[in-house]
Amino acid sequence: MNNRTLAVAITIFFLASHTAMAEPVKPLHQNEARIEKLDKINYLPNLLPTIIENSDVIELTDDQLATLLSWREANSENVVSIMNEIVHKRVSIKQAALSPDISSARLIQMQNEVFRLQREVLEHQLSCRELVINTFDRNNWEGFFLVLADKEPGVTLPELYMTKR
Prior knowledge:
Elements (H helix, E strand, L loop, with lengths): L2 H18 L10 H8 L8 H7 L1 H4 L3 H36 L6 H32 L2 H14 L7 H5 L2
Helix pairs in contact: 2-5, 5-6
């Protein structure tokens, strides 16, 4: 085999392997996994992935599940986009803080922008929480608390829920 043929073979090999390693398009439900990775300061639990993953244990009806999936489809991309923006702004703040040319007032402005974006994420989370509250019935809550007890040791039923039994 001459050098030219060898070079062509190597080039074809690298092109083929590069194409084979291309990242596939991620389905919408994988955005929740990205959200968890992006948001290191998450005060509210990320309910929807757990609920959808365990819809059988929670005994969601087809209509309930469709309602939750519809909300996810409508909001997931936006939440991921906002969280990506937060990550980029946090990096910018760290870089700016090391520059003697950036004033403290500018750093405060930059941090306030991150707070504004975190507030947007919080509003989405609260919207999801409201949807869950309005979608679940008592039976769904019981199943959900069973799922949480398995997934997160130390999670207990809310006191009001326990007193209604």
